[in-house]
Amino acid sequence: MATSASCRLWAKVARVRAILERYSQDSPLSLVSDIPGNGTNYLPLPVAPGEGSVLPVFEPNFSEIQQMEYPILQQPPQLILESDFRVYITPGQAPKILIDFDTPGTDEVVRTTWTARHLRDGSTVPDKDFYAVTDFAASLAAEKLATFYVGTGDSTLQADVVQYRSKSAEMLACAKALRKRYYTVTLKGTQLLNPSQDDTPLEIYSETCQLQWGGPRYGATGSTECSYSFQSCQVVERIMVAPNHWEKNLGETTANTAMNVINRRRVI
Amino acid sequence: MPNAATTQSSSASQTTGTPIPLTYGYGWVTGKRHVYHILQNTNDSVNEYTRLGLWLLGHGEWDGCIELWINDLLAWNGGIAAPKQLIRGYGFNWLAALDYPEGIVFNFHSGCDSVIGSGLTTPSSVGPDQGLDVLWSLIPPAVQPLDFSRIAYYTLMRKQPIVAQTSNNGNDASQWTDIAPIGLWRALRCRLFDDEGNQTGYAFTTNPAWHFVDVLLRRKLMPDYGLDVSAGPDDLTTAVRNRFDWGSIFTAAQYFDEFISNGHRRFEGNYSFASQTTLQAVLEQILLNCRSYTTEYAGKIALNCDMPRPSVFTFSRAHILPGSWNANDQMLHKSANRYIANHRDILVPECSSIVSITCSYGANPVVTTLEPHPFQASDQIAIGGTNTTYDGNWTVATVPDVINPGATNEIDPSTFTMTTKGTNYPTSVGAGGAIGLRYSRFKERAPEFWHKANMLARGVVGIAHFFCVRSNHSLGRCALAGW
């Protein structure tokens, strides 16, 4: 029973406008239209290109004008500053676009990039977002199922009781996870260079040679790798070792140093 | 000798098992002593009890020495031999010393590649090449002579008098002592580049941008390259060159180099990495010194400095994921707004203020200080802030005796004379400027930066606050050197 009911819900919810409303808010449809000039600073709202009765429309309380190019076909494109155009509404009249300074003539057009809501049939949703939208649809379906299960009452029998409340919680968790998938973009970046794993300085004072045999620093040209010891070294003037030696007498620690009193006070 | 007050120290006599330091900028360094020997049974009172040794400085190629101090006294500062110095035997290149009338052999080897085929049998080098040093001829044969290819080092030989000798008898062992050197050095030379990544130079630098590039090259990207004493390092390969965003690095380098109002460059770096750590920690230290950060995008490593920028940020929905933004209101003082910067000052600390300097023609200049001063005859001092030709290094010539020493009415001297350096000095300079002891360079400092005014500010806690705190102070002049 639950399976067939959920299938029906999936099919139903997948068609609801709520999905596309949400998607339109997050990623509105972007369109480009040419608005003919009329010799004034006021231009009509853009109309979506194409044919047919179902086309995206400019809605003043939703759509945004992202960019206006005038005159067109310049290299590089000549854009009107964002601060120099706006949707202007006069009471009782259709909204218009007001452009400061420019008055495009009747033989000119203003190339306008604007946003609109996606069509209800979902045909304007790009393929790249197909799975995100279906995740959102599935999350709505899971929420609906959670609501369905939360309405189930406890059994009056003391045996063979089904724990209905956990189903509701699971569906909510499922909805949450699906919703997260809709909102989340996963980016993977790998550091080419991970400095936290590199001992620095690399080389130490050691009795074993630190150089790479055959490398520019070593200078060996033979075909047999050395054993990185002085005995096996093939270019002894390049060997990088610091073997321990005996030292006669005590040296620095017992040096008879001057006893000048040195004032290290700093004047502030 | 190396002193905890001025030098971060580790045992200089342990040579194995410790990292070969990477030192950038100026360093106050003794180095790891590799071998040390006392000439004895020479049948020669001149050379008997002469000390000689070899100290390893770190990864090459270093630029050179500025001052060499032996047993707390300035022995050499690059000057030319004075006529009264005793020059000892063996035909070596003896240098005149400033502290005692005993010459020194002081050979510096910069740390480039030694010449293939030169062998280890002919000790003839006096530096700066990486040949076999002449002093190996005096070291017992049980010690294997080495060139120390790619390691900067110096050798030193001297018959060192004890303090306040009672006799100049060359055969009296009690009158001659060991040597404990320390030097002020210009450390690693670095490659310099233009904004296209072409190498335009190879030189000593305190610019952190070139340190940043150099440490990445040495440790990660191009550790194996040739380094000739004359021709310098091999050029970068194309692949390595393409790993850097040279535009950002060059811009940062230029910005660091600019002189700001206090007369110093905006950012300079002087640091010695003498302990094993990670490349990340090393990079962090360098970046902290120049208030910068690094990014890696599309395979290119960039260096970005936190330059002044508008404080207004226009926040829009383009900056957030839908439904993810959450505003909060926290006290900013929950995050630190008090910083204590621990570092060693590369500059000479001031310890007396100048009231006046007077000088008769050809005589020793007489300095009067505001308070009684700590100087003694033969002290090496530095004068700054007079804005005259007196600004520079001097030697104290004479100091008046303390009057009534130890009594309640003791009067300590507040004047002294300096050894004349010529006649081209003003006859009278008024109050202003200060005096410090050159040996106190690299003194530890811990200035505090405490922004009390911001303690009650409210808003979102973020990194911007940290940058705000730091942007008003120059933390760039930081010195961590010596071991």
Please describe what this structure looks like.
Chain A is of the alpha+beta class. Chain A contains four helices and seven strands, in the order ααββββββααβ. In chain A, α3 (130-150) packs antiparallel against α4. The N and C termini of chain A lie far apart (85 Å). In chain A, 21% of the residues are buried. Chain B has three domains: 31-179, no CATH class; 188-305, no CATH class; 336-483, Elongation Factor Tu (Ef-tu), domain 3 (Beta Barrel). Chain B is globular and about 90 Å long. The interface between A and B is large, with 61 and 94 residues.
Write the layout of secondary structure elements.
The complex is a heterodimer of chains A (268) and B (483).
Chain A: H1 2-13, H2 17-26, E1 29-36, E2 42-44, E3 65-69, E4 85-88, E5 96-99, E6 109-116, H3 130-150, H4 164-183, E7 199-200
Antiparallel strand pairs in A: 1-6, 2-5, 3-6, 4-5
Chain B: E1 22-24, E2 26-29, E3 32-38, E4 51-59, E5 62-70, E6 73-76, E7 105-109, E8 151-158, E9 160-161, E10 176-177, E11 181-193, E12 199-204, H1 208-221, E13 227-228, E14 232-233, H2 238-241, H3 246-257, E15 269-273, E16 277-278, H4 279-289, E17 292-297, E18 300-305, E19 330-331, E20 338-340, E21 343-345, E22 352-358, E23 366-369, E24 380-384, E25 392-398, E26 415-418, E27 428-429, E28 434-437, E29 443-445, E30 448-450, E31 458-459, H5 463-471, E32 478-480
Parallel strand pairs in B: 15-32
Antiparallel strand pairs in B: 1-15, 2-11, 3-4, 4-8, 5-6, 5-11, 7-8, 9-10, 11-12, 13-14, 17-18, 19-31, 20-30, 21-29, 22-23, 22-27, 22-28, 23-26, 24-25, 24-28, 25-26
Helix pairs in contact in B: 1-3, 1-4
